[in-house]
Every structure is written in structure tokens, then in C-alpha cells.
């Protein structure tokens, strides 16, 4: 492996290139289920509340998994753990089309999707710990921007393709494609080599799962920037966790468009995420972490507030793009900061504590937002959520986030 501290560029790092390609492939598959699961629930039940229930149950599974995901990531071979999570998701998502050949029991969705969400959390926690093991410390933000950008590229085409597949063959077919991509991603990980943490002797800390998890919590809570950032993101996730369901419901039920239009709207949104990945490195360097995170989050809130005020599909797509551009910049900054300031042997546990804490309100938020959309209408809900997100962002000016 090239010395990651002194490569001429990220592209000279073979392991980084391979990792980027296979994660782009996995992201393409993710975008299929991102569209297909809500569509399948909506086709089967006609209820935005049921869509929110599935999203909420998946969030609960992610929270529960987060309690021990970081401990596992800090104890075992991280590449094998990524492969295990990919294989598990492949088998779980493959179950849906296999069962749907004979019947359409909704309990399969309520069982499989949350379980897959748990493995997704395990994958995401481990994924964060892997990036510093592939690139140098001064390349982390740029690498995260590339990875986020590749994810956006995949999800630009993915929702559109998923919409076409769902319209032509049903959402179940799109879920089957997702299962295949997880299998390919697991195979590709065999080609990636990871550098062991510099503090490898400290990695096996012992003391039981509870104590090891609390070690991550203690580090997180002692840090002057990560602590308030976790609190603010908890409120942010509560407000926005159900927004994808709301947008799908708006396009299909309120405006009467088909599955392919849903795919176009969500693809337009991910164009914004792609543009954000180009901008984040320069913006953070120019403005610093605090101003970048606060400003981007506030702009995302403005875009959300405007989503329910228009009946034009192109405008909804443009606002989705603005929302994901802003939140993408904020998310890349947040993850990069955590990777930069956390010791390698603690990174899994700190990441798990970070995500478990700020996702804890996500299921409740998804259920509340989708139920409110059904009861009060999308326009009022989007306005309330957008104003709330702006308030969360501005609250950061009074915390250590502003000085980060």
C-alpha cells in the first residue's frame, strides 16, 4: 500500500480507488431500495402513516444496533465486518422478491427492512472507521467529499432507474436489484487493504460491551464541539427523518404523479448532494467548520420550508436539490471532524455513540412528521419542519460548534 501520509493524490492510492468504486456500486443499489421500499408500502397500503411506521421501525433497529456496533467495529477485523453487513443485507432484501412470488404479506416488510437497517448501521459505523485506514489525515475531508459525491452520482441515476423499474415491473423488482449490488460490494471488498490503527495495542480495551460503549460516550461528551453538535443533530434528525416519505407522498398522492416521477424528483435532489461534495472542501477551508455547518444547515431548512408551497414538480425537484446540497455539506463536515479528532482505537465506539444519540429521536420524528402530513397537509408540515431546522442551525452560534 502507498504511504497514505505522502501520496501525490488520492487517485494514486489503489485501495482508495477500489473502495470508491465498490461503494458507488453499493450506493446505486441503496438508491433502489430508498425508492422501492416506500413505494411498495404505499402500493400495498395506500397510507403515508404506514410508510412512516416502516421508516420509524428501521430507525429503532438502527438505534439498538448502534449500542454495540462501535464495540464490534473496534474489536474485530473491519473489512470482514463490512463484508458481513453487505452479505446480510443481500440475503435480507432478496427475501422480499422471493416471498412476493407466492404472496404479499406485509409482515415480511416489517421484519426484513428493520433488520436490514440494523446491518446498515453496523456498516455505516465501520465505514467511518475505514476511511482513515485508507487515506492520510490531511486527505480525510477530500476523501469523504469524493465518497459522498460518488454516492450522489449513483443516486442521481438510481432513483430514476428505480422509478422506471417500479413502473414497469413493480417495486419488488427494484428491491431484488438492490440485493445483487450488496453481493457485488461484498466481493469487491476482498480487494481492499486497510492500514491498522497507529494505536493498535490499545484497540482491545476489554471491560465488557457496556463499558466499551460508554468509553465512546465519554469521549464524545467531553469534546467541546462534538457534544453540542450531537445535541443539535438529534433535533435535526427528529425534524427531517421522515421527509423522504413526505416528498413521495406529496408527488404521488397530492399531485397525482406516477412512480417514475417520484424517481425524477429524488434524482434531482441528489444532484444537489453531488454539487455539495464538490464545494465542501473549499468552503470548509475558507470558512472553518462552524460557519460551514451552521450556514449549510440553515439553508437546508429554508429549502424544506419551501417544499410544500409549490405544486410544480420541477420546483420540488430543485428545492430537494438545494436541501440535499446544504445538508450534504454539513454532513461531510461533521463526519470529517469526528474522524480527525478521535483516536483510531475509539473511532468505532465514538461513531456509534454519536449516531445512536442523535438518531434516537428519528423514529418518533418520522412517525410524527408523516402523521402530521396526513392530518394537516404537506405544506404546513414542511413549513414547520423548515423553520425548526433553521432554529437548530442558529442555535449552534451559541455553542462550541461555532468555534469548531
UniProtKB/TrEMBL annotation:
This is MFS transporter. It is a multi-pass membrane protein. Keywords: Cell membrane, Membrane, Transmembrane, Transmembrane helix. It is found in: Cell membrane. One of its GO terms (molecular function) is transmembrane transporter activity. InterPro entries: MFS, MFS_trans_sf. CDD domains: MFS_MefA_like. The chain crosses the membrane at residues 20-42, 48-69, 90-110, 116-135, 147-167, 173-194, 229-249, 261-280, 287-310, 316-337, 358-377, 383-402. The keyword Lipid metabolism does not apply. GO terms for cellular component: plasma membrane. It comes from the Bacteria. It comes from Streptomyces alfalfae.
